[in-house]
Amino acid sequence: MKQPGYIMVSLFFAIVFFEILKRQTMKLRPFIALNLPQHVLADHSYAFPSGHTAFVFTLATATYFFNKKLAYFLYASGLVIGLARIAGGVHYPSDIVGGIILGILIGFIVYKLWMRYFSHKTQVL
User: Which domains are delineated in the chain?
Assistant: First the structure.
């Protein structure tokens, strides 16, 4: 099955946007802010938004427009990833919710722009 090009564009913009946002908000991760024991694989970058959750929700939203079943699986997976990140002490719930909202928005906005400007060149399956 051919993947629509807007998925890659969505993921590119998501990664860039989330990295910029993390550096602007500079929100410390819970294990750092609460002085908890350091995890073996702990990430010392900033916490907001959750990049893992946002990435999967961007992918799920972009996928939704051509494969709803796969998108639902990705949404559920993104939620599980977000909950695991909270349980692991590397994110607050607000980081996860922010990642979900921003991931959905970016996936939706890029899809709409892609369809507006490139739909005559792209076939969505």
Answer: 14-39+48-118 (1.20.144.10)
**pLDDT value at position 43?**
58
- The 3-class SS string of the chain reads CCCCHHHHHHHHHHHHHHHHHHHHHCCCCHHHHCCCCCCCCCCCCCCCCCHHHHHHHHHHHHHHCCCHHHHHHHHHHHHHHHHHHHHCCCCCHHHHHHHHHHHHHHHHHHHHHHHHHHCCCCCCC
Q: What is the mean pLDDT of residues 73-96?
A: 88
Specify the pTM: 0.76
